[in-house]
Design goal:
- With about 290 residues, this protein is of the alpha/beta class.
- Helix content is about 30%, strand content about 25%.
- The strands form three sheets. It has a six-stranded mixed β-sheet, sandwiched between helices.
- Helix 8 packs across helix 9.
- The chain is elongated.
- The chain starts with a strand and ends with a strand.
Length: about 290
């Protein structure tokens, strides 16, 4: 199935076919339930109709800006392309793409309308994912007032970041939370992680990030292990870990935490769903989320 669809009324079918041919998209005739049908499976939706109709139809379907499709409304006279939903997540670029047909993109997101990149735009351009998505609000707001530095860190490396620092890493579906005993060796961590990934049929290349608590900052074996796995290791603060919910009971309460492996995996995941709850491999505890 094509990831882009143009929705139109029958009287605008000719214009819709023209847009679809330009984008390499499918065309769907409007019906009361058409948005319910296309919303779950399409990444980009072009609606050739009144914006009011689109707003009313998609409002009950909205879930999360990181997973909702990009929606662009095109005026029936093919004059304007207006990103309605997901401006930072593909809609702005889709509207600009339609400029190739002579349409005028109407960009309303604050950063792009002022000629500045957003965190999400930078991630798309570099083929990376934003790990700590809650940070983008503060960083994008700061981008409106000043030039924010971008640092490229070559791994293996350690990154400690506050809530107003966005972390972009290579794309991947899964996050791995790791807990370990003090003085753990790198080989033990590598063996545990690889065993957990193999049991869940997850390739190492599909791991977005590895995460643990800042209390493990001096565990050189853990750091070396993630380097051997060609991964990115993030240390999470206590507040971030303790903000997670739906966790298994953990002895980490002795160090003031609700857990380590499970909350670290969940905190850095996109969908906040555990693929594998915490499992102990010798002196290493592993959890996987996506």
């Amino acid at each position: 199935m094509n990831d882009t669809v143009v929705i139109t009324f029958p009287y605008s079918r000719g214009e819709a076919d023209r847009i679809a041919a330009f984008l390499g998209a499918d065309v769907a005739d409007y019906s009361p339930g058409i948005f319910d049908t296309v919303f779950p499976g399409r990444k980009r939706i072009v609606a050739l109709m009144s914006m009011g109709i689109v707003v009313r139809k998609i409002a009950p379907l909205l879930e999360d800006k990181w997973t909702d499709p990009a929606v662009v409304v095109v005026s029936p006279d093919l004059r304007y392309a207006v990103p309605l939903l997901g401006g930072h997540h593909g809609a702005n670029e889709l509207a600009k793409e339609l400029a190739g047909l002579g349409l005028q993109p109407v960009i309303t997101t604050a950063t792009e309308s002022r000629g500045r990149d957003s965190v999400e735009t930078l991630a798309e351009r570099t083929g990376t994912e934003v790990v700590n998505r809650d940070s983008t609000r503060q960083v994008n707001a700061a981008l409106l007032d000043a030039d924010i530095p971008v640092y490229a860190v070559q791994g293996p490396a350690i990154v400690l970041a506050g809530p107003d620092v966005s972390i972009l890493v290579k794309k991947g579906e899964y996050t791995v939370g790791i807990g370990c005993r003090k003085g753990i060796g790198a080989a033990d961590v590598v063996d545990a992680v690889r065993a957990a990934l193999a049991e869940n049929r997850i390739p190492e290349t599909d791991v977005l990030v590895y995460a643990t608590t800042t209390k493990k900052f001096n565990e050189t074996g853990l750091i070396e292990a993630v380097g051997a796995l060609s991964g990115n290791l993030i240390f999470l603060d206590d507040d971030t870990i303790n903000a997670q919910t739906g966790l298994s009971p953990s002895r980490a309460s002795r160090i003031g935490l609700l857990g380590v492996a499970e909350p670290c995996a969940l905190a850095t995941s996109r969908r906040k769903m555990l693929v594998m709850g915490k499992k102990v491999y010798g002196s290493v505890t592993v959890a996987i989320a996506h």
